[in-house]
Amino acid sequence: MREGDGAEQSRPGKVSGIPEEDSSPVGGVLPGLKVLVYHKVALGTPDKDYLWAVSQSRLRQHLRFLMRSGYSTVTLRNVSDFLDGRAELPPKPVLITFDDGFGETGEIILSTFNEFGSKATVFVLGAFEPPEWERVREFKREEMMDREQIRKLHSAGFEIGSHSMTHSDLRSLPNDEVRKEMSDSKRALENLLQDEIISFAYPYGAVNETIERLASETGYRYGCGVYSGPPKFGTDIYDIRRIPVTLGTTSRHLAIKMTMPYEYYAWLRFKIGRTLGR
Ligand SMILES: [Zn+2]
Fold first, then answer.
1. What superfamily does domain 31-275 belong to in CATH?
2. 33-52 pLDDT, tens per residue?
3. 241 touches 263 (CB < 8 A)
């Protein structure tokens, strides 16, 4: 689903903090907006083999760096309201997302983001229980957020998005099952929160054009991938590219990812990898 599709007809405002030539988004494109993706946050030092985890103190350093650099956190809902012409975005917006919804992570991000007056978009499973992790073995023993934790995050201003029901690679499922993963999780979360769920994060970042279309058809307004989407935010709102924040991402690494055109580099690497059949 490419630029020009969907709800991009409104006349959005100007974003301060994004270079002048990029500051008037046309067709819902926000070239300067970066999207980060975290997974697990641990109270202590995460296991060194645990690529997708950061410690709470590392997360705090990241947020401190972002705040000192003048960034303000926004959610996909904020972006949606902005693109619909209903709200402004703060100067230098950055979109922070969390995938999976691990139990301990929920408590940690609630308190850590509160320290900085920040917020994030958190993608959780509509089944509210640990899935069969077929590819990420070290996640097996993790508790997931329960309904109460998800409610707490939501009422604290975090956006809750869906990460499917069972965390399956959607590319391996027939279309009607993909549709069910999307609709059932949307309904379960909407029933829980009495609020519309507008965003979906594809498990494992695994997405193709059919899956993007199904996300749109089942009522989502945004779909988040990781590796495959175009570098410019809004060019494909059903495959939003995100910058992974992992165990090795220090504040200095984050600074590089925030100030350099990292997503263009990652996009190029993805394209070359695909051309070479990797
Ligand atoms: Zn996931």
1. Glycoside hydrolase/deacetylase (3.20.20.370)
2. 999 999 999 988 887 777 88
3. yes
